[in-house]
Design a protein that fits this description.
heterodimer; B: mainly alpha
């Protein structure tokens, strides 16, 4: 319980507040400091976030003509984003790699000039650079039974985050 | 811009800043704007130099987000940073005005920490202001009326103003002071 002494000190401080020693900065001062927010780690790269929709999931739909359905212990996913100049597709293949790990192979089309893909599950992160064909591979990733998140950052200043990738059966 | 509860604590705001959330950065600057600006003024600097200190502290904070994300007391960190820059600029100003070696030596001896007490009081007032802004009603109105109005209103008048029975004001005041004390400490305040 707060002591009487501390209570009296708080009362004295409250009485002192009416003196108004705290000053408000001019609007311009505040504006310039806020503008520094553009240099924040994520904002520094000027990244634009794109949203991609899942348009095909081999674990949830029957095989489509021309699209190879997933093999046992494998899941094929296709995401599409239409915010850029032309639609961007992210083709993913997730498969079991041992009892507790998964392997992710992916490709981004049209082929970007460069970038990286990062798979995240809780505190675990694994990163891969995009290859010349916009492809990447992340091997033996321990997702711990949780559906991981895939973060893709493209050199043209775009970030695409795919939350909760569905895992292949048996993961 | 994402929205967040007004009471998001400093640690949450700093972590959001580290994820690139500019809204969180705005909220941090808003929260500490008066402290960052008042410390240089209290140290005797002009409004132009106070603006310089403000921008310096903001930039240092931006550069140090990763180090302060686990800091127990961001207000202390900000106040220390503002004090140091204020002292540095004040020294530079005074050196420019007193060019002889003797006078400069005197300045070093005199020390710019003469403002220490006033600055510590400013930090306490800032923590208390944030606590009052956060405490909610009826505590805010009650405490402002009892301790900041001159003269303070009679209990009957205050009870009518707040729509409460006169007999409840005493217990409410005690409860509000207790709540205020908790918020005050959370905002980095200490008792003199």
């Amino acid at each position: 319980m707060r002591s009487k002494k501390t209570e009296r000190e708080l009362e004295a401080l409250l009485r002192g507040l009416s003196g108004g020693r705290l000053s408000e900065p001019p609007a311009g001062t505040l504006r310039r400091a806020k503008a520094l927010g553009a240099q924040l780690p994520g904002a520094a790269a000027g990244l634009v976030e794109w949203v991609a929709s899942l348009v095909f999931d081999s674990g949830a739909e029957p095989a489509l003509a021309g699209v190879r359905s997933g093999e046992a212990g494998e899941r094929r996913l296709l995401y599409r984003n239409e915010q850029g100049d032309e639609p961007c597709e992210i083709d993913l293949r997730l498969r079991r790699a041992g009892a507790t790990s998964i392997e992710l192979m992916g490709q981004i089309l049209p082929v970007p000039t460069g970038g990286r893909a990062t798979l995240v599950a809780g505190e675990r992160r694994r990163e891969a650079r995009l290859g010349e064909d916009g492809d990447f591979v992340i091997r033996r990733f321990g997702a711990g039974g949780t559906e991981p998140r895939l973060e893709i950052e493209l050199e043209q200043g775009v970030r695409i985050i795919l939350e909760a990738l569905p895992l292949p059966e048996g993961s | 811009m994402r929205t967040r509860p007004r009471e998001a604590d400093d640690r949450e705001l700093v972590r959001a800043c580290l994820r690139g959330d500019e809204g969180a950065w705005d909220a941090l600057i808003e929260r500490y704007r008066r402290l960052m600006y008042s410390i240089p003024l209290q140290a005797g600097l002009s409004s132009e130099l106070a603006d310089e200190v403000f921008q310096h502290v903001a930039l240092k904070l931006l550069e140090s987000l990763d180090q302060v994300k686990d800091a127990k007391s961001l207000p202390k960190w900000i106040a220390t940073c503002a004090r140091r820059e204020s002292w540095r600029l004040a020294k530079a100003e005074r050196r420019a005005a007193h060019e002889s070696v003797d006078e400069q030596a005197d300045l070093e001896d005199e020390g710019l920490e003469a403002h220490d007490d006033a600055l510590a009081r400013l930090e306490r007032e800032h923590a208390l202001t944030l606590a009052l802004e956060e405490i909610g009603e009826p505590c805010e109105s009650l405490l402002r009326a009892l301790y900041m109005e001159d003269p303070p209103p009679a209990y009957q008048e205050l009870a009518a103003r707040l729509g409460k029975p006169v007999g409840s004001l005493g217990p409410t005041r005690a409860r509000c002071l207790k709540k205020l004390g908790g918020l005050y400490e959370r905002h980095g305040g200490d008792v003199p």
